[in-house]
């Protein structure tokens, strides 16, 4: 057909134009299309990489947090148990102390009552003794007044005393 | 079926105006597609951006299958431009062709050996350029005598054979497709029955041509990367 008859009708212009056109096209596309496109592809790749890294990091953090929290929970549980045990023990001790104190108080009251009783008895004896004394004085004065002899006086005193002693 | 080409001589250079037109149209279409797709870039791609990112990943796959990314990364823009330009160029001749005054104006630019061979020579030239640039002249030169010196003529022939096959494979596939499409069209012109009869193979062949055009764009890019890897890689 028209070409490939080398040396006769080579379309040198076409060759030149094709070369120039292709090179220009390549340069233009590199600047306006491929460059930005690859830029955004690379940016996306980096973005995804970053996101994956971040996600992995977050996961690791969550895992460590979880472990920490479990540890904390365990600790808190142990602490609570210790507190309860402590309180129980303290309660027991306190209860015992209260009982002891009550017992002591009761003993003290009892002793006081006994002491009171004793002192009241002493008082009563003392009062009686006073009465006896005054009675004996009265008897003596009566005897003196009657001017009794020694013998009858003695007998009288004895009688009185016996009387007093019996009445007691 | 035989059409002439609108050839104009300007400043001692022969211009096939149809080629000039189609080269420019292809380039502009590729540029518009790329610009539309990258006009509003976002981290969450949608629509056209998705498509173009798929193309980028596709070409990345081609490069990664031939050489490691440290050496091959710089060829990504070349591969992207190549595959899109050749694909668009292959598709342009499929829906219709425009003939004015027995001169063929609208066709695939890649249906012309001048264009495909220009691309092929450019690619092979690039492989030599990068071979020298990235490995040094000595190592580059010694490659022609590996594994032993006797192979030098064969290696030399290989370079030219590579260029020819790379260009002519693309040309042959696309040109053959267009010739058959032209034949089917002229068949359909010859009568009503022929018109109905010819419609089915026409549609089938157009579908097949889309497939062939895509495959050829892929093969051209793939071979470009293979040749580049041969010249650039330290081990092969």
Describe it for me?
The complex is a heterodimer of chains A (168) and B (236). Chain A is mostly helical and 168 residues long. Chain A contains 2 helices and no strands. Chain A has helices at 12-146, 150-167. The longest helix of chain A is centred in the middle third of the chain and has 135 residues, at 12-146. By secondary structure, chain B is mainly α. Chain B is built from 8 helices and 4 strands, in the order ββααααββαααα. Chain B has helices at residues 17-37, 48-66, 69-72, 76-92, 113-135, 137-142, 152-189, 192-232, and strands at 7-10, 13-16, 98-100, 103-106. In chain B, α2 (48-66) packs across α4. At the A-B interface, α1 of A face β2, α1, α2, α4 and α5 of B.
Describe the secondary-structure layout:
The complex is a heterodimer of chains A (168) and B (236).
Chain A (H helix, E strand, L loop, with lengths): L11 H135 L3 H18 L1
Helix pairs in contact in A: 1-2
Chain B lengths: L6 E4 L2 E4 H21 L10 H19 L2 H4 L3 H17 L5 E3 L2 E4 L6 H23 L1 H6 L9 H38 L2 H41 L4
Antiparallel strand pairs in B: 1-2, 3-4
Helix pairs in contact in B: 1-4, 2-4, 2-8, 4-8, 5-7, 5-8, 7-8
Helix content of chain B: over 70%
Uncertain ranges of chain B: none
**Major sheet of chain B: size, sense and barrel closure?**
2 strands, antiparallel
Determine Rg of chain A (CA atoms, Å). Answer: 65 Å
Query: What count of helical segments of chain B does DSSP give?
Result: 8
């Amino acid at each position: 057909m028209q070409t490939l008859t080398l040396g006769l009708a080579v379309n040198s212009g076409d060759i030149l134009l094709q070369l120039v056109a292709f090179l220009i096209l390549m340069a233009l596309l590199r600047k306006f299309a491929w460059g930005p496109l690859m830029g955004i592809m690379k940016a996306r790749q980096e973005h995804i990489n970053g996101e994956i890294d971040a996600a992995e990091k977050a996961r690791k953090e969550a895992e460590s947090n979880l472990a920490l929290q479990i540890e904390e929970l365990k600790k808190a549980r142990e602490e609570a148990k210790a507190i309860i045990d402590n309180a129980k023990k303290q309660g027991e001790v306190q209860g015992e102390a209260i009982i002891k104190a009550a017992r002591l108080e009761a003993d003290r009251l009892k002793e006081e009552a006994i002491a009171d009783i004793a002192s009241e008895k002493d008082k009563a004896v003392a009062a009686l003794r006073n009465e006896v004394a005054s009675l004996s004085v009265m008897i003596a004065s009566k005897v003196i007044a009657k001017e009794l002899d020694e013998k009858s006086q003695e007998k009288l005193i004895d009688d009185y005393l016996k009387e007093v002693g019996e009445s007691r | 079926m035989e059409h002439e080409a609108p050839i104009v001589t300007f400043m001692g250079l022969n211009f096939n105006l149809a080629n000039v037109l189609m080269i420019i149209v292809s380039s502009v279409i590729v540029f518009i597609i790329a610009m539309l797709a990258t006009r509003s870039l976002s981290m969450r791609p949608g629509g056209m951006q998705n498509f173009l990112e798929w193309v980028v990943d596709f070409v990345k796959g081609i490069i990664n299958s031939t050489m490691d990314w440290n050496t091959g990364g710089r060829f990504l823009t070349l591969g992207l431009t190549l595959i899109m330009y050749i694909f668009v160029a292959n598709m342009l001749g499929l829906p219709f062709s425009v003939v004015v005054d027995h001169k063929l104006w609208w066709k695939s630019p890649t249906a012309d050996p001048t264009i495909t061979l220009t691309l092929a020579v450019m690619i092979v030239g690039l492989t030599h350029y990068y071979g020298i640039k990235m490995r040094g002249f000595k190592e580059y030169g010694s490659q022609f005598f590996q594994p032993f010196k006797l192979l030098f003529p064969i290696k030399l022939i290989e370079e030219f054979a590579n260029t020819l096959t790379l260009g002519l494979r693309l040309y042959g596939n696309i040109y053959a497709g267009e010739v058959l499409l032209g034949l089917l069209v002229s068949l359909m012109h010859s009568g009503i029955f022929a018109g109905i009869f010819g419609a089915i193979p026409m549609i089938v062949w157009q579908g097949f041509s889309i497939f062939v055009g895509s495959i050829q764009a892929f093969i051209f890019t793939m071979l470009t990367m293979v040749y580049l890897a041969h010249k650039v890689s330290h081990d092969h």
